[in-house]
Amino acid sequence: MTLVRNPFDAGGYSLAEMTQAINILPNLYTRLGQIGLFRFEGVSQRSVIIEQYEGVLNLLPSVPLGGPATVGTREGRSMRSFALPWIPHDDVILPGDIQGQPALGVFDRADPLVEVMNRKLQLMRRKHAQTREYMEMNALRGIVKDGSGTTLYNYFTEFGLAQISVDFLLGTAGTNVQGKVREVLRAVEDNLLGEAMSSVHALVSREFFDKLIAHPKTEEAYKFYAATGAQPLREDMRRNFPFAGIVFEEYSGTVTLSTKATERLVPASEGIAFPLGTMDTFTTYGGPANLLEAANTMGLPLYARQHLDEKGRWIDLMTEASILPVNKRPRIAIRLQTSN
Q1: pLDDT given for residue 26 in this prediction
Q2: Percent of the chain having pLDDT more than 70?
Q3: CATH 3.90.1690, applies to 9-337
Q4: Where in the chain are the domains?
Q5: What is d(CA 242, CA 35) in angstroms, rounded to the nearest whole number?
């Protein structure tokens, strides 16, 4: 969706119009978004209650003050309340942003104000998308971090669960790599706990990927795949390698935190394996905007609004998201590593 009206006309754009526009803009950053791993679910409150029972995390909605209570904790169960992180991000349109552009009322091209607003909304959308990718990649591994790299919640420690890790020992020539893959597949299957899946995928660091395809037990299989599995003259065969039931994909995503430090989404010599085709394991919950008109409404992935300075000196562009990604079966995502 492209904004086509002058922001100054008839009071500019409403919260609903701006929010619809920014949610439709293309998301150009997220690999997990391309895979479709985390589904979005809106909630009407700014927190969620999660219950853990036999290794599965279930959502229990928080209720307004004075509303009916949730069921109390029973033996073998534990509950925690989690606040949805609030992620605001603002920008501004100044006279200098449109200075030198065609004057208002020239119809042979788009209004410069609208062009600037579209461009800034796209940039803001990408920043939110990058933040969501960062949060979901960490949640996949059982941890929720904010944009500064601070750990907000660790689902393993919150619910007394232990993460499963498999060391592939890819620096040892005699390692049975197929046996390691079977160990990962069985760990995923054992922790489905009533869930379904279609396949297992692994996002791995470049170091892990290089050692995997160069290992004596996999080198020939990779050469055969590179020669016959695709069109090697057109495609980058470095990106993925299906082996023994898992598709290993090199993933080199890096984010710049709010502290200006950079962080790799998959640490060096590591990876994470997880099932695809699940129905209710990976969910990102979104709460309503921190605005009166959005109170008690079902949350959206992202909100946007504008505010014209009363003296006409600038337009504030304001965006926000309140999202909490949850891996409801934390032990289903297997940490991969190679210690040598």
Answers
A1: 67
A2: 84
A3: yes
A4: 9-337
A5: 16
Which tokens is 177 given?
């790599």
Query: Could you tell me if 275 and 200 are in contact, meaning their C-beta atoms sit under 8 angstroms apart?
Result: yes
Per residue in 6-65, pLDDT (tens digit) is: 554 545 678 888 888 888 776 665 788 888 899 999 999 888 888 888 778 887 755 554
Residue with tokens 């991000």: 89
